[in-house]
Design goal:
Helix content is 27%, strand content 21%. The chain is of the alpha+beta class and 267 residues long. A 4-stranded antiparallel β-sheet has the order 1-6-7-5, with helices on one face. A 4-stranded antiparallel β-sheet has the order 2-3-4-8. The longest helix is centred in the last third of the chain and has 20 residues, at 187-206. The structure holds zinc ion.
Length: 267
């Protein structure tokens, strides 16, 4: 959390209001949030656009980009009062954009525009915009890997945007057991996987993301997402398809839900 749909919802909420405004100044309050910046450039430019790759939110200026990784609990708040979790504030002409992060796994990276593309190349294709050719490359790489599918899709190196909640949802929809070794998946499994990924991510973006009962995620102007009402396996008790009791295990310390009847382990 937040994953692709939440970051995309934040992007869509901010864009019409903040793009075009000039950044008058900013303040990073927390050295941990600032851990990847060697210096803090003076940015005195208009915001040209807000983009996204995977879970990264990117403010694009002429000479600089500000990359936000929201980590586990980061959020972007517009014109909200500074609180003890406010790690950075950006002062635009009309609006103040705060980066709040309770658990401090998130970070802000301010980089020269010329370095942005190289930086973004280090993460895999965005699963909402992945092309046929890129997905074929993901499949080819998987043939040489013995990783578990759940680890593989959470590793932002191969593809980007999927986090723990949507990984559970996508594997359930694709009837793939989360402990399946990726080199045993066939082309039909992958076809299902990519189709379900796009469908589930589109729906979640339409619903403004998932706000769980911990209220960690909400939108920049305070609204909640509604995709929690559409989850089929994450934190559920009974299977949506067959009503069998859902198993909960931990893979790499991440809560993993599956139905042993609908998602059979083949290997
Ligand atoms: Zn089931």
């Amino acid at each position: 959390m937040p994953e692709l749909p939440e970051v995309e919802s934040i992007r869509r909420s901010l864009s019409p209001n903040i793009i075009g405004q000039k950044l008058q100044g900013y303040k990073i309050n927390d050295h941990r949030t600032n851990r990847f910046n060697t210096k803090n450039p003076k940015i005195n430019e208009s915001l040209l656009g807000i983009s996204r790759k995977g879970k990264l939110l990117i403010f694009d200026f002429e000479e600089y980009s500000i990359i936000f990784h929201l980590g586990m609990s980061g959020r972007i708040q517009v014109n909200d009062k500074k609180n003890k979790h406010t790690r950075a504030s950006f002062y635009f002409d009309k609006d103040q954009v705060n980066f709040d992060d309770i658990r401090r796994f998130g970070f802000i990276n301010i980089i020269n525009s010329e370095l942005k593309n190289n930086y973004l190349k280090k993460i895999g294709p965005d699963v909402l915009n992945i092309t046929k050719e890129q997905s074929r490359m993901v499949i080819n790489k998987s043939k040489k890997s013995k990783s578990l599918i759940k680890d593989y899709i959470l590793n932002q190196k191969y593809m980007s945007g999927i986090g723990n909640i949507y990984a559970n949802e996508i594997l359930f929809a694709s009837r793939i057991h989360p402990k399946t070794k990726v080199n045993t998946l066939n082309n039909n499994n992958w076809k299902d996987f990519f189709n379900n990924t796009k469908r589930i991510m589109h729906l979640a973006v339409k619903n403004n993301g998932t706000t769980l009962s911990d209220m960690t995620y909400f939108l920049p102007y305070g609204e909640f997402g509604s995709n929690q009402n559409f989850l089929k396996i994450y934190s559920k008790i009974n299977c949506f398809n067959c009503e069998h009791i859902i198993d909960k295990i931990y893979i790499n310390q991440r809560a993993t839900y599956f139905c042993r009847k609908c998602q059979k382990l083949k290997n």
